[in-house]
Amino acid sequence: MLTLTENAQTVISGIVSGAEAPQTGGIRISQDVEGAGLAVAVANQPEADDQVVESAGAKVFLDPQAAVALDDKVLDASAQPDGRVDFAIGQQG
């Protein structure tokens, strides 16, 4: 299952809070429409078939394809001074 670094937990919590999402909210990672990459968006709640990863209050919702692709990965994130957020995916262990 996908794990989150402390940085990712902090950044994701900030994104969701800044978007004024409800307590059930998180970020949703899904396969993009072309199937070539992943898309990230703020979601108020998971979709019915999403896998939910929660760590230190940060919630990530993974659509079924993203859940398979990220099963053995670690998500890291950093916020830039200009407001941009960079996500990085690494291998667990």
- Please write the CATH class name: Mainly Beta
* CATH H level, superfamily name: HesB-like domain
Question: What characteristic shape results from the CA principal axes?
Answer: globular
Q: Which structural class do you get from the secondary structure elements?
A: alpha/beta
Task: Please give the alpha-carbon distance between the first and last residues.
Answer: 12 Å
Number of strands: 7
Mean pLDDT comes to 94
Question: What oligomeric state is this?
Answer: single chain
Strand content: 35-45%
Rg of Cα set: 12 Å
As a percent range, the share of helical residues equals 10-25%
Judging by the overall fold, what is the CATH architecture? Sandwich
The neighbouring-strand order within the major sheet is 3-2-5-4
Number of domains: 1
The low-pLDDT segments are: none
Largest sheet composition: 4 strands, mixed
Specify the number of helices.
Answer: 2
CATH topology: Hypothetical Protein Aq_1857, Chain: A
InterPro entries: HesB-like_dom_sf
Organism: Agrococcus carbonis
Protein name: Fe-S cluster assembly iron-binding protein IscA
Protein described:
This protein has 93 residues and is of the alpha/beta class. It has one domain (3-91): Hypothetical Protein Aq_1857, Chain: A, CATH 2.60.300. The protein contains two helices and seven strands; from the N terminus they run βαββββαββ. The strands form two sheets. It has a four-stranded mixed sheet. A three-stranded mixed sheet has the order 1-6-7. It is globular. It starts with a strand and ends with a strand. It comes from Agrococcus carbonis.
